[in-house]
């Protein structure tokens, strides 16, 4: 089983060139900050996401943390244009809400928490689905699209799996294939909904290392949701703490991961330890006499 | 089915397509050459060569025999091609849009609507009339479109037109239309036989008129569905992911359902409610050719066309000079085959 390296390579000097791209460079993808203003998602009277605003600089990584039901996934789906919402999300000077799905998909790629795994689909074909937004209405995938998909598979260490059925892959391999599909979209913004859920701790690091490498080398802008506070703080350069649809705190992990802040979003018994530049969230044992 | 070269992945291999078309041509020839009226095979073959190539042989066919080949069998074979291809293609498309293996082209009420339309035409026009009524196809077509429009209009829950609510609306509309149809049928028991035989399906056609009438609808429907075949592959990952990948899911579903329903409505209005073609043919193609709609749709078109021509041949010849209703043949041939396919597929997922 091939796995991606656990080390984060230093950022490359010089102009960023996507290493999974075909040699002929396509029209430059729109680059820019992901700016969300007043995002609001409602179901009936209830606001799942309530007036959320933030900016992720191009090449930055914002991870949204919060308890179940805080609105993390709804926020991501709103940015991806998958749920009706108020407010706006834009990439560079492109307002996502006014774009057609194909135009939006060329700017924002979405990795769902529980991707559908259609039967009988090879890994390469699955990754090629990421090229959908780049095909002309009557067009089939060109040799260039296939080359892009193969480069993505190579970058993710999935070369050997190209012809295998997606349904035959392990959880970690499958998660990489889903990320591969998103990378094949060649969008400057990557949305990751719980990218580490269901993975063992080594795969969790692998996936996050991979995303980190992509954003450092290629300037990918990342917006993710996560439950594991320690991991979230270790990788993102910004954390957004979400509770009941509202941002409670946002900023660098060193500033946002405080016991006072966490007490506002969770009733879990936890303590924070500073360990070599990262913040480790420790679970406290049950209180004697409590139910 | 693995094609050489990476770019051909999930695309239909040209050799497979060519082989299938050759097979279809063979079926067409068999359909032209064989029938309940015994005609000398040698004369038939010479007649075909004569007509198709412009070479002039001495053709030993009598004018009556030649008319049987060109005015009775040929339009019937052509009608079988159009109806079978359309039903199978529409069925495959419905299965893709609904991501449901049980979907068939009659799902949104086409069959019940066409049945009601035909029943109204037959029962109201039956006074003293004999033989096929000219406006039955028009009434059936109108009924089918009304039923599908009602299903689509009513299949909205909470502002969303999800596949599940559409399916349920189709069930409801079908039940209502069938209830009215049954009521009308029982009020006029003298037309029971006509209605019943229409429902069972019939490809017998007086000359080329019906076939030519059907052609533009089926051609339009097939063209649209084939254009959308890759989008159906994307829909396989679910509405939300397909949308995130750049597909306008609602519009895609609407266009595919519209095209499939239009083709189906046109087909059943001429042929009656031929069952099973629309559900088994795409499944058999899926079993043999994989799960990609880029293979399933074109191959269903070809296989459905061939299957119905063969089924019609059995219907014409088995009890000659009497004719079996073609719906009986498709179900009798298709049922056991379908069971075999299902047994092989057990556990393989859909």
Could you give the topology of this structure?
The complex is a heterodimer of chains A (291) and B (350).
Chain A: E1 34-43, E2 46-56, E3 61-65, H1 72-79, E4 86-91, E5 94-95, H2 101-105, E6 108-111, H3 123-128, H4 143-155, H5 171-184, E7 189-193, H6 201-218, E8 221-226, H7 229-235, E9 238-243, E10 246-251, H8 253-256, H9 259-265, E11 270-275, E12 278-283
Parallel strand pairs in A: 3-8, 3-9, 6-7, 7-8
Antiparallel strand pairs in A: 1-2, 1-4, 4-5, 9-10, 11-12
Chain B: H1 14-33, H2 41-53, H3 63-98, H4 110-124, H5 136-154, H6 163-187, H7 192-200, H8 209-227, H9 229-235, H10 239-244, H11 249-271, H12 277-289, H13 293-317, H14 326-345
Q: TL;DR of this structure?
A:
The complex is a heterodimer of chains A (291) and B (350). Chain A has nine helices and twelve strands.
Protein architecture, described:
- The complex is a heterodimer of chains A (291) and B (350).
- With 291 residues, chain A is an alpha/beta fold.
- Chain A has a single domain, classed as P-loop containing nucleotide triphosphate hydrolases (Rossmann fold, 3-Layer(aba) Sandwich), CATH 3.40.50.300.
- In chain A, 28% of the residues lie in helices and 25% in strands.
- Chain A contains 9 helices and 12 strands.
- A 6-stranded mixed sheet of chain A has the order 6-7-8-3-9-10, with helices on both faces. A 4-stranded antiparallel sheet of chain A has the order 2-1-4-5.
- Chain B has a single domain, classed as ABC transporter involved in vitamin B12 uptake, BtuC (Orthogonal Bundle).
- Helices cover 71% and strands 0% of the residues of chain B.
- Chain B contains 14 helices and no strands.
- The longest helix of chain B has 36 residues.
- Chain B starts with 13 loop residues before the first helix and ends in a 5-residue tail after the last helix.
- At the A-B interface, helix 2, strand 6, helix 3 and helix 4 of A face helix 9 and helix 10 of B.
């Amino acid at each position: 089983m091939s796995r991606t390296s656990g080390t984060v390579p230093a950022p490359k000097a010089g102009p960023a060139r996507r290493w999974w791209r075909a040699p002929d460079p396509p029209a430059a993808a729109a680059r820019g900050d992901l700016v969300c203003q007043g995002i609001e998602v409602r179901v009936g009277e209830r606001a799942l996401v309530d007036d959320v605003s933030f900016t992720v600089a191009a090449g930055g990584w914002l991870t949204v943390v919060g308890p179940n039901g805080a609105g993390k996934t709804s926020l991501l789906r709103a940015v991806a244009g998958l749920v009706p919402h108020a407010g706006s999300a834009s990439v560079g000077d492109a307002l996502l809400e006014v774009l057609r799905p194909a135009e939006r998909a060329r700017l924002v790629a979405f990795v769902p928490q529980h991707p559908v795994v259609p039967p009988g689909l090879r890994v390469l074909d699955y990754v090629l689905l990421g090229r959908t937004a780049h095909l002309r209405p009557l067009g089939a995938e060109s040799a260039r699209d296939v080359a892009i998909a193969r480069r993505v598979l190579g970058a993710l260490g999935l070369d050997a799996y190209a012809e295998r059925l997606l349904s035959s892959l392990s959880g970690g391999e499958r998660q990489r294939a889903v990320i591969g599909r998103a990378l094949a979209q060649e969008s400057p913004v990557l949305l990751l909904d719980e990218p580490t859920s269901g993975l063992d701790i080594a795969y969790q690091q692998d996936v996050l290392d991979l995303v980190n490498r992509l954003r450092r080398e290629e300037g990918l802008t990342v917006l993710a949701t996560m439950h594991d506070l320690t991991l979230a703080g270790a990788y993102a350069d910004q954390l957004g703490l979400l509770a009941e649809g509202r941002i409670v705190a946002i900023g660098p992990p060193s500033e946002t991961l405080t016991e006072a802040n966490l007490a506002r979003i969770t009733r879990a018994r936890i303590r924070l330890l500073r360990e070599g530049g990262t913040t480790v969230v420790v679970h406290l044992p049950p209180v004697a006499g409590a139910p | 089915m693995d094609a050489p070269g990476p770019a051909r992945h999930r695309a239909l291999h040209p050799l497979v397509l060519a082989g299938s078309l050759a097979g279809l041509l063979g079926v067409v020839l068999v359909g032209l050459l064989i029938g309940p009226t015994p005609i000398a095979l040698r004369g038939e073959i010479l007649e075909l060569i004569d007509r198709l190539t412009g070479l002039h042989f001495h053709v030993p066919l009598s004018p009556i025999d030649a008319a049987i080949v060109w005015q009775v069998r040929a339009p019937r074979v052509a009608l079988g091609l159009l109806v079978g291809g359309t039903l199978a293609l529409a069925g495959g498309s419905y299965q893709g849009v609904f991501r449901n293996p049980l979907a068939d082209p009659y799902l949104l009420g086409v069959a019940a609507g066409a049945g009601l339309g035909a029943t109204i035409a037959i029962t109201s026009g039956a006074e003293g009339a004999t033989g096929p009524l000219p406006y039955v196809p028009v009434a059936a077509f109108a009924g089918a479109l009304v039923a599908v429009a009602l299903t689509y209009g009513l299949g909205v829950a909470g502002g969303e037109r999800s596949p599940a609510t559409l399916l349920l609306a189709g069930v409801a509309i079908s039940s209502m239309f069938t209830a009215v149809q049954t009521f009308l049928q029982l009020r006029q028991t003298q037309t029971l036989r006509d209605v019943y035989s229409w429902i069972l399906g019939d490809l017998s056609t007086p000359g080329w008129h019906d076939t030519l009438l059907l052609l533009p609808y089926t051609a339009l429907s097939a063209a649209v569905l084939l254009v959308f075949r890759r989008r159906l592959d994307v829909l396989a990952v679910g509405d939300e992911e397909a949308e995130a990948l750049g597909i306008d899911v609602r519009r895609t579903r609407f266009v595919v359902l519209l095209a499939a329903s239009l083709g189906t409505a046109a087909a059943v209005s001429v042929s009656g409610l031929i069952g099973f073609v629309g559900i088994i043919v795409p499944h058999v193609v899926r079993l043999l050719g994989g799960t990609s709609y880029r293979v399933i749709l074109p191959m269903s078109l070809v296989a459905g066309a061939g299957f119905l021509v063969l089924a019609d041949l059995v219907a014409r010849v088995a009890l000659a000079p009497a004719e079996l209703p073609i719906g009986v043949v498709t179900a009798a041939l298709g049922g056991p085959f379908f069971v075999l396919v299902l047994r092989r597929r057990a556990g393989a997922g859909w």
